[in-house]
């Protein structure tokens, strides 16, 4: 019993050591900062805003074909830049063995309408059954939330 009293009288630390927790949190923060840009699919564009978009959850799937059109008229298939005249053959090769022949278009709000129409015509000519136009949903307060039309 005498030993126990001696131990109890020794100074104990009542504070929690947060240093290991902070170290783990900083490592997780760095991991998320590195991984997050890799999660975005395709090219980032400032999409058109719509009040009543139609949900197209299939566009977020890994095997979905997404064509992006930037404001300066460049066309991207996935993450790679492609010339519009080559787009038809590339898409035709990909969709020929698929049951779902849908391609989604992500167009910048300031892209020329002529470029978007040309891409849609090229896609239709390459054997695509449906073309989905992706938009951002405008909330009641005026803020935009990413959605699909």
- Give the oligomer, counting copies of the same chain as homo and different chains as hetero: single chain
Q: If you compute it from the alpha carbons, what radius of gyration comes out, rounded to the nearest whole angstrom?
A: 26 Å
Numbering strands along the chain, what is their spatial order in the largest sheet?
4-3-2-5-6
Order of helices and strands: HHEEEEHEHEEE
Detailed description of the structure:
With 149 residues, this protein is α/β, with parallel strands linked by helices. It folds into two domains: 2-39, no CATH class; 49-146, Nucleotidyltransferase, domain 5 (2-Layer Sandwich), CATH 3.30.420. Helices cover 36% and strands 20% of the residues. The strands form two sheets. It has a five-stranded mixed β-sheet, with helices on one face. It has a three-stranded mixed β-sheet with strand order 1-7-8, with no helix packed on it. The relative contact order is 0.18. The model has no long low-confidence stretch (mean pLDDT 81).
Keywords, separated by commas or semicolons:
149 residues, alpha/beta, Nucleotidyltransferase, domain 5, 2 domains, three-stranded mixed β-sheet, 8 strands, 20% strand, elongated
How would you sum up this structure in a few lines?
This protein is α/β, with parallel strands linked by helices. It has four helices and eight strands, in the order H-H-E-E-E-E-H-E-H-E-E-E.
